[in-house]
UniProtKB/TrEMBL annotation, chain B:
Topology within the bilayer: Multi-pass membrane protein
Protein's recorded name: Peptide ABC transporter permease
Domain ABC transmembrane type-1: 118-317
Gene3D superfamilies: MetI-like
Transmembrane segments: 59-79, 120-146, 158-176, 188-210, 245-275, 295-317
Domain of life: Bacteria
InterPro entries: BP-dependent_transpt_permease, MetI-like, MetI-like_sf, OppC_N
Natural source organism: Paracoccus acridae
CDD domains: TM_PBP2
Subcellular location: Cell membrane
Keywords: Cell membrane, Membrane, Transmembrane, Transmembrane helix, Transport
Family affiliation: Belongs to the binding-protein-dependent transport system permease family.
Chief place of localization: membrane
UniProtKB/TrEMBL annotation, chain C:
Organism: Paracoccus acridae
InterPro entries per UniProt: BPD_transp_1_N, MetI-like, MetI-like_sf
Segments passing through the bilayer: 121-139, 151-174, 194-215, 257-282, 302-328
Family (UniProt): Belongs to the binding-protein-dependent transport system permease family.
ABC transmembrane type-1 domain: residues covered: 112-321
Name listed for the protein in its UniProt record: ABC transporter substrate-binding protein
Automatic annotation (TrEMBL), chain D:
Main location: membrane
GO MF entries: ATP binding
Membrane topology: Peripheral membrane protein
Record-given protein name: ABC transporter ATP-binding protein
Keywords of this entry: ATP-binding, Cell membrane, Membrane, Nucleotide-binding, Transport
Amino acid sequence: ERGSDGALNIIMWQAPSTMNPYLSGGTKELIASSMVLEPLASMTPEGEHVPRLAAEIPTLENGGIAEDLKSVTWKLQEGLKWSDGTPVTSADVVFSGQYCMDPQGGCSQLAKFEGIESIEAVDDLTVKINFTEPMPDPYSAFVGANGPIIQKAQFENCLGANAPTCTDQNFNPIGTGPFRVTQFLTNDVITFEANPEYRDPAKPAFATATIKGGGDAAAAARSVLETGEYDYAWNTQLSPDVIAGMEQMGRGKVSAAFGSLVERIHVNLTDPSSSHPEGERSTNAHPHPFLTDPAVRKALSMAIDRQLLTEIGYGASGKPTCNYVPAPEAWASPNQECLTQDIEGAKALLDEAGWTVGGSGVREKDGVQLKMVFQTSVNAVRQDFQALIKQWWSEIGIETELKTVDASVFFGTDPGSPDTLQKFYADVQMYADNFEGGNPAPYLAKWTCDKAPSPANQWQGENISRYCDPAYDALLVELGKTVDPAERGKIGQKLNEMLTKESNAIIPLIYRGTASAHSNSLGGVQINAWDSELWNVADWTRVQQ
Amino acid sequence: MTDTERQHHLDLRETVDATAAAAGATAALPPDNPLHAGGETRSQWRDVWRQFRSHKGAMVALVLFVLTILFVLVGPYIWTIDPTYVDIRARNSGFSAAHPLGTDQLGRDMLARLMAGGRVSIAVGLTAMIIAISLGSLIGVTSGYFRRLDAPLMRMTELFLALPLLPLLLLMVTLFREPLSQSFGPAMGTFILIVSAIGATSWMQAARIVRGDVLGLKEREFILAAKSIGTPAHRMILRHVLPNVLSPIMVAATLGIATAIITESALSFLGLGFPPDFPTWGRLLYDAVDQMIQYPSRVILPGLFISLTVLCVNYIGDGLRDAMDPRIRGR
Amino acid sequence: MLTFTIRRLLLAIPTLLFISLVIFLLLEASPGDPLGDVPLTVPPEVKERMREALGLGSPWYVRYVLWLKQFFWVEPLYWFDHVFGTQFSAGMQRIISFQSRSPVFDVIAQRVPQTLTVVGFSYLVGVLIALPIGIISAYKQYSWFDQLGTFVSMIGFSMPTFFTGVVLIIIFGVKLQWFPSVYDTTLVVRDWDSFWAQVRQMVMPVTVLALYNAAQISRFMRASMLDNLGQDYVRTARAKGLSERTVVLKHVLRNSLIPVITVIALGLPAVFGGAIITEQVFKVNGLGQLLITAIHGNDIPMVLTLTFIFAILIVLFTLIADILYGILDPRIRYD
Amino acid sequence: MLDDKPLVSIEKLRVEFETGDGIVVGVKDVSFSINPGECVCVVGESGSGKSVSSLSLMRLVEFGGGTIAGGRLMFDGGDGKVIDLARQSSPAMRDIRGNQIGMIFQEPMTALNPVFTVGDQLTEGLMVHRNMTKAQARARALEILRQVRIPEPERRMDQYPHELSGGMRQRVVIAIAMACEPRLLICDEPTTALDVTIQAEILALIDRLKREKRIAVLFITHDMAVVAQMADRVVVMYRGDKVEEGPVEQVFENPQQDYTKMLLAAVPRLGEMTGKAAPERMRLMRDGTVSAPEPIIVKDPKPLLTVEGLTTRFAVKGGLLRRTVARVHAVEDVSFTINAGETLSLVGESGCGKSTCGRSILRLVEPEGGRVDLGGTDILALSPRELRRARRDMQMIFQDPFASLDPHMKLYDQVAEPMENFGIGSRSERRDRIAALFDRVELPRSFMRRYPHEMSGGQRQRIAIARALALNPKLIIADEAVSALDVSVQAQVLNLLMELQGDLGISMLFISHDMAVVERVSHHVGVMYLGRIVEIGTRQQVFENPQHNYTRQLMAAVPVADPRQKKISEDLNFRPIPSPIHPVDYRAQPSVYKEVAPGHKVLVEPATHH
Ligand SMILES: Nc1ncnc2c1ncn2[C@@H]1O[C@H](COP(=O)(O)OP(=O)(O)OP(=O)(O)O)[C@@H](O)[C@H]1O
Ligand SMILES: Nc1ncnc2c1ncn2[C@@H]1O[C@H](COP(=O)(O)OP(=O)(O)OP(=O)(O)O)[C@@H](O)[C@H]1O
Ligand SMILES: [Mg+2]
Ligand SMILES: [Mg+2]
């Protein structure tokens, strides 16, 4: 029964700063706003689509998707109401599209609307999205928590340049979700109450909800697992033994959901040496002195014990992997070769390639020594990985200097900073990345020759490794033309293998899940890596133990 | 009459006078042996040292501090395990013969890490503190002493106090990390960068306090007297002003060491410090906080060393201050 | 002294303008990106758009002047309107945070109360325990009280709050369950129960911070007392037959407080700046947390405004310290 | 009158100090007693333990690092019980201090708390011991301030110690000691910083208290004339021991010990110099014979220092915001000349601006107007750098020796400093010179290693003199340079100064209260009153033919070093002293002089004293 279970307490140590996901793009904002705003369809933990505001998922079969793949038609459920009591209509959907696609609005989800020619309201409950070109994956706009429907009446004056001035709207959007905001304190606390207009009269079970921000992952986990002050803590990525210690209290547990997040090492195929003039470092002007040698890259990968890394760093919320694209099933390559560490093999490989061990235990060839700088962002697990990997590499005769960079600098794209991911002024670097929705194609499209970051594109390219293989580019074009899902998966697997197994330009380490802690007294939690973790918060209940 | 003759004459007279006055009293007089006593035979520093030695707390602290320094400097030659060597099978092991203080989550030997970490922490703490204190005293004294410089220097202090630390540090690192590591090598370059970053951002409090004291001191008559004998400004500051504002400087110095050690670890959480596998006490402490319950010794050990160092420095500072203050010395 | 104060206040204006410019340039120059938080899944073109929407497209001096205008003209107007119900600021853009897209001042106003209750109160507590400890330690130099005080305060000072805070949480929050480990910023004190709840949640953060502050101030107090205890006027005071209490608490203390006042007054702006680590450990989302998240998110308007307000406070409190100094020590002349 | 049992008796007192050099004995073995209504004067060379004995009586030595190592301090508690002060608990002592025993300290600058007003410091004791309300205490404090002849007591109540002249501070310290009308008053050099007129007043006041309230007085002084006037009995101390004790007439007329004889021989007497044109050295007894003084004649005097229209004012701050509410016209239109090798003495009541005048010449305080010309350089026009150089030629000996010595520096370094400043001599040359200087000011060389607080008042003063002499300056400004010294050392130091003057042609501006000394040492004398010179001329002109009323009063007030000629009791009736404080917009008149004889000028306008 609605409101019968009292208060729901959620802690998110990274606090949400706004309730409008179109303006932020950060996961923390998505999660918070998903309590209030809903898309047409969501993704399940298994990566499948389920209707939310839509009556059903449009497919070729039910005629929702046009034969030529150039349009998709969504039908809204009947009788939907905004939390202020007004009906939800197709105009709201059209408006939501308009809102994000406004060139001056700075909408962070713009990519989801790529290729859309127009969005039109067919009738009060039907919306048709027209694409400029045939779209093999039409489930992009309005699918997932990052593409919710906002109320036209509320946001009408917030288009384009006006978007940031609408503080009240951004902080307290009128939605269709199970809760509505009662108080929003940015980067601090959000309080909600059950939405009286929610479509299922029995839900949500909780009368109020709070999302508290602040602290760190350990503190958040502690407040759920040890003190029991909170019911749910988001993103409690901690070392496995700490988690195990906390779980011993018996108040709750940590569970993980697997999406597409892979922790990997990128190899720099260009020379980052500071002896080159600024503007030529880490660009195609100077190939890397030794990492261009495939044998060296392969040896780097072979020396790593992914199993051990998982055990130390992630426990149950990680799996060793050799893949760049770990999911969906059809796209993931069955490649398992890298899972066993092979130090001797790596040594042999290097010997064979002519890299002989020099005086100081470092291999060299033609005066080039295997000495590298290994950088990553500041993060306890990553620093442990660095130390371990450094040791393994030193065993095969490669010397590594470690470097860490503050995350906001590392992942920032400030062209003035030498320490960004894109500039890659190091020989190898480690981070994790994923893709959204069920379609890895754009994710694979990052690795074409023209996307290598360089001064020419203000270092904004996405091809971090500066990988360049015309065969890859060609195969990618083919993928764009392919419609058949099975065929697409095959090509995807091939592309994936070209990046990893064949070239070792990317050395995948671990397929990471997102870990969250929840109290044993919380029922209905279905942690989800493909959508907002709170996607089914309407179904959560208090269970008696 | 030559000087020696004159002196001799004077002494003779004193003895005569003394005998004339009261018999046998001279023996208990202050050890006036004017013929042999010279003003410089005993230097000020030896005096201070002698006094310092009588300060029990300071002596104990000094011994402990020297031991700590020996531990971190000489220790690694005796206990030769590489502090960055990962022995994954031995991870999380407790106290044992192979690892007297246990190992960390990657099986790195804690004893070796404490020794290596201490080197860095003590070096950073001392150097950064010295930089901060010298800078602070210099600016404080100059602005308190020279009326004309007061306003600009104090406005500059305010500016520094107001500057947000983090962006400043980030900027410093971006600008200077590479040039420094190129000219001094990566470890030394980072060291220079860190100590100057900490030093350059923590001198303000000392400066303000010293300035305040100097303002009061300037009105004392002996400063006027020193002025009247033509004491130039620099000498005035070094000989008359500084010794008289020593005690707040000492306090700032002790507090400064603690802050520098902790700040160094804070810097490494930001990726601004030493390479990540390079242990320092502050970082060892920080890394172990999450595992405090499972492995308490990992927090206690570095915490103990930090506190011990700070306490030692504090007591040494106290002892020095007392030893340098002739008024307290007698007590 | 009046002219001194007025002159200093006038001088403060160019100083502050200069400080704001330096801070602005520093933020501009330091690496980091307001969009660093945006997931890697967002493609660069979109990021470019977002950047432009934040106004980052225009050159730095335009943005700086705009900020100046917003800070010194629009915001005062807005608050004027707010109080008197006028409409002067209608249609003018206030300073907007990059992260939350809300007016910076509104957020700051939200945060001030919790910072003042926790950090401010702990400063007060810190000072109140530091002064007696400093005085007694100096008066009974090298007594057991002094030794213990020294020991505790040095430990208190050398142990970082990220450590002491967590220790307290584990002992009193987890093991004993006396105090909550998470500070509830939405708690409103209405009755005894909520008052009690407020007290309970303040105990740990206040203890940690007060210990830290007290350690520092008591050391300065002790040193300053020691300097003055040996002076001749103390002998005169004793010769008057005053009790040791009066001698120490009146004659010596007044003289010793002079330098300590500086320490205390100059520490006060830090109260408004928040205690970043303690706030984080106890989840008190005050100004410190605001500043640190803003810095990490490269939220330039927020950081600039916060640090600028901080600068104003520093300048103000320096002035106050100087004036107090002049009042406490009649020998000091300003002019 | 002196028949009852002693109020206090000191028996075999021994006081030790712990210093860097080990145990120092401040007082070795001293016994004497004082009856109610009796004044015992303790005399003796400086450093002989006078102050330490008196501090022991108050049990204050302990706070200065000393310990009472032996002896008893019997004190009649008033209710018939005799208690040993050396064994009293500290609460009991607190009740006695300030209440039963009052003490006047030797060095007024440091004896007062710099951050409390005079009023605060005065009323405190009253409120504690007499249970007075604030208002009552204030009223009583004003009364005492009037008794000690502080001008404008109401205003002084709200002033801070540093705003007062040396003499005024001393009077405040006296007032504090007398506030509760103690039964024993310990006076440690209470009048050395005071001019003769005020001194006479204070002595009369103490004398009256002694007679009327039967207060016992322990009076420590160097000034044998004061001893003669005040004492009933005299105790002579030498190097920590009592060497002689007896009724004042007996000690003066029939001294038993060589040391006492020497002391008395060295006492200068006013009027001795009548009829002599040039100053003469002091008499000194060496090896039982008294040296014959020889006149110091300067041939062909040329002006070295010319001061014209010197004016110095201080701002008086008031109100919460401490704005300038008035100004102290400390020095107003003062002009004089000093010839090379000659001495000009400035005399005048305390607070009349003598020290300020001296400091203005050195530019240690910035004068508001006028001209100071030293050997052709215009001092007031010098840049800071040039000024520093110029100070090599002019040195100052400060009035308050303790305050003018850096507490952190050894005496050796303090004396070496001027030479180091100007890079004079090599290290060893400097060492020799310092040793010589120590000898000249009669300090044992072992003192080189001591710190200022380990010295007696007179010893400190000698260090200050040695420091000033270190540079062989052309001009020495001696601000009460010898007033803290005992007569024998005073005579030696004065002789030294005069010797140097003869040898090196040093000029001296000699600021003093001691008219007898002034008469002996000066070529010219200027009398100051309220910031102006009221009479100036050669010594003979001023002393033998005083023209100005104030000068005459001054002469009349000089105590005579003869116990049979007591003139204390006859009240010298002084008018309240007008104030040098004027509103900010006050315009001072220029000084107009009448030349009564060549070089002998008397102020006629503004008429200040009648
Ligand atoms: N705190 C101290 N530490 C060491 N020695 C001291 C201390 N105080 C005084 N003395 C020494 O004790 C002796 C007696 O000093 P005291 O002050 O009693 O002399 P005094 O007779 O008062 O001389 P004066 O007339 O110059 O003031 C001197 O030799 C002095 O140096
Ligand atoms: N720093 C100051 N601030 C205000 N007034 C001052 C200051 N110094 C001196 N005075 C005042 O100036 C006047 C002259 O003082 P000065 O010290 O020159 O007197 P003096 O003649 O040396 O007296 P004494 O013989 O007592 O030392 C006094 O009224 C004194 O109160
Ligand atoms: Mg004395
Ligand atoms: Mg004077």
